[in-house]
């Protein structure tokens, strides 16, 4: 019993001692906690706009009691301290509250290159902020990476504190606290990852439309390609331009319009060479698939058959889909028409969509690329047709039909002439002349009977011609011989727009012939000029009809009269001789 009482007393003594020590420990902890001052807190926000300008805002909250302790309760002016030590280039202000100073420092920049230069100077660390640009396709933007260390941008501040207080790095660190470090680009926040702030703002800007304009000039193929990018390109135009301009093949001129449209212009001597340059631009190797054939269906209609592949994936690497539009030029005097897949002539759209002289042959969304297959028809129309006919006798006529085609590409000039020679067979002579401005003129000359001329006309023009000469001989000794002359010529196969061509007719009559009366069909407008036996007329229709009634001295009458004179003279001479011998 006595032993149990002794153990109970020892337990009570132990508990009293434990409670006393615990009370002393708690009191010490509370006293030490009360003695510790709030730390100076630091935070920073890097805010970058879409155009790559921005600000780095650095905030400091310093408790006044902490500052008094740091500066040993001396008379302290924190504003004077900041004024003396704040680096140049930082804008700052502060708010003085009852318990603390709240300071804000702002570093402004107009570009990332300027930011990189300023932040390196502020931290004293070369390439503190690492910035890289994309190197593929039409990828734009940047990747920015820097240490997730707020105190690095306040090195000037902590160095000034160490010098003022004399504290070591480890002791001073107990008074400092890093609260926040954030990076914002275009309104989106990027947090720290693996002790680094990383902003991946790279973006693929797919071309939203690609316009291809192709034209044939006198001796060259010309092409202009417009690659239209989204409006977001304006914010990073300089970066994308520098990359795209570096990949332009030789011989292609590249300019930028409105910061979003890349215009590329180039020329080639052949269609296949044009396709090769296009493939190089689009970073594809499909130039071997390009093909062209040229056929002259008649002397005025030339068909170009094209098959040209395009690969657009280089300019639409993200979506792979582009709106592609293909335009063809009607700059020449030839009218342009196009066959569809069934080789049926299709009607061209009237809308030019801002490209004067071009018609749109293709407009659709394509996946990666496509091949254009089409037939472009050049239909040349003579600007003026002159029919010059010289009537030497009822069975002998000489006629030259002159076709003034205007400006014709050199690629077509020989083809037109050769085809015209082929179509006429042996019915006449075709000659061609080209002046300094590449205006092509064809001359179709025939000499022969009216029926021979009619066959030659039909062979060359593909239309029916009727020529009729009817002579009526009066009594043998009448002084005049009357002819009726009728001619009809159809130029409809040569005229795309009949009203656009001037047709001039000139008729040279035999010597001694006069026009008794003249009448014309309603389609012919007459100038009624009769000078030196030349009859001229104009028309704008595609069928020419001319009717004339002519008269000329009767050669038989004069022949008979001459014969009678000779006979009478011979008789008289014989009578004279006979009388002389008597």
UniProtKB/TrEMBL annotation:
Domain of life: Bacteria
Keywords: Membrane, Transmembrane, Transmembrane helix
Membrane-spanning ranges: 14-33, 555-576
PROSITE patterns documented for this protein: PROKAR_LIPOPROTEIN
Protein name: Uncharacterized protein
Organism: Anthropogastromicrobium aceti
């Amino acid at each position: 019993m006595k032993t149990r009482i002794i153990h109970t007393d020892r337990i009570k003594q132990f508990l009293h001692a434990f409670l006393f020590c615990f009370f002393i420990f708690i009191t010490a902890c509370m006293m030490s906690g009360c003695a510790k001052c709030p730390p100076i807190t630091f935070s920073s926000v890097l805010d970058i706009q879409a155009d790559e300008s921005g600000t780095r805002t650095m905030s400091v909250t310093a408790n006044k009691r902490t500052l008094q302790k740091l500066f040993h309760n001396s008379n302290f002016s924190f504003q004077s301290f900041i004024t003396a030590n704040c680096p140049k280039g930082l804008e700052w202000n502060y708010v003085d509250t009852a318990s603390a100073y709240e300071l804000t420092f702002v570093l402004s920049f107009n570009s990332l290159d300027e930011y990189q230069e300023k932040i390196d100077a502020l931290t004293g660390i070369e390439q503190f902020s690492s910035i890289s640009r994309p190197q593929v396709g039409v990828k734009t933007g940047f990747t920015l990476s820097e240490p997730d260390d707020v105190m690095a941008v306040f090195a000037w501040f902590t160095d000034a504190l160490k010098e003022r207080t004399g504290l070591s790095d480890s002791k001073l660190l107990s008074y400092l606290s890093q609260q926040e470090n954030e990076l914002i680009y275009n309104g989106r926040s990027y947090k720290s990852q693996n002790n680094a702030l990383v902003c991946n703002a790279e973006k693929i800007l797919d071309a939203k439309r690609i316009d291809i304009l192709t034209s044939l000039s006198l001796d060259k193929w010309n092409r202009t390609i417009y690659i239209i990018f989204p409006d977001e390109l304006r914010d990073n135009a300089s970066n994308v331009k520098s990359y795209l301009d570096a990949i332009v093949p030789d011989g292609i001129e590249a300019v930028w319009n409105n910061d979003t449209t890349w215009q590329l212009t180039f020329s080639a001597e052949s269609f296949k060479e044009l396709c090769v340059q296009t493939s190089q631009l689009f970073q594809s190797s499909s130039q071997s698939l390009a093909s062209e054939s040229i056929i002259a269906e008649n002397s005025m209609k030339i068909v170009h058959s094209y098959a040209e592949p395009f690969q657009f994936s280089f300019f639409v690497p993200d979506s792979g889909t582009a709106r592609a539009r293909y335009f063809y030029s009607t700059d020449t005097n030839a009218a342009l028409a196009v066959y569809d897949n069934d080789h049926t002539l299709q009607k061209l759209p009237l809308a030019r969509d801002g490209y004067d002289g071009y018609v749109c042959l293709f407009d659709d969304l394509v996946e990666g690329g496509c091949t254009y297959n089409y037939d472009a028809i050049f239909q040349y129309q003579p600007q003026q047709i002159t029919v010059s006919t010289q009537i030497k006798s009822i069975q002998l006529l000489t006629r030259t039909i002159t076709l003034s085609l205007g400006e014709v590409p050199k690629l077509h000039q020989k083809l037109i002439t050769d085809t015209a020679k082929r179509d006429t067979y042996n019915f006449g002579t075709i000659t061609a002349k080209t002046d300094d401005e590449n205006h092509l003129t064809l001359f179709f000359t025939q000499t022969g009977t009216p029926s021979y001329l009619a066959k030659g006309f039909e062979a060359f023009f593909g239309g029916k011609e009727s020529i009729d000469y009817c002579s009526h001989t009066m009594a043998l000794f009448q002084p005049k011989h009357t002819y009726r002359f009728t001619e009809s010529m159809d130029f409809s196969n040569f005229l795309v727009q009949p009203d656009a061509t001037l047709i001039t007719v000139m008729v040279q009559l035999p010597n001694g012939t006069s026009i008794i009366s003249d009448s014309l069909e309603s389609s012919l407008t007459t100038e009624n000029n009769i000078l030196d036996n030349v009859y001229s007329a104009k028309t704008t229709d595609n069928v020419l009809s001319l009717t004339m009634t002519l008269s000329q001295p009767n050669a038989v009458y004069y022949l008979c009269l001459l014969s009678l004179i000779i006979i009478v003279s011979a008789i008289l001479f014989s009578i004279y001789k006979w009388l002389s011998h008597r």
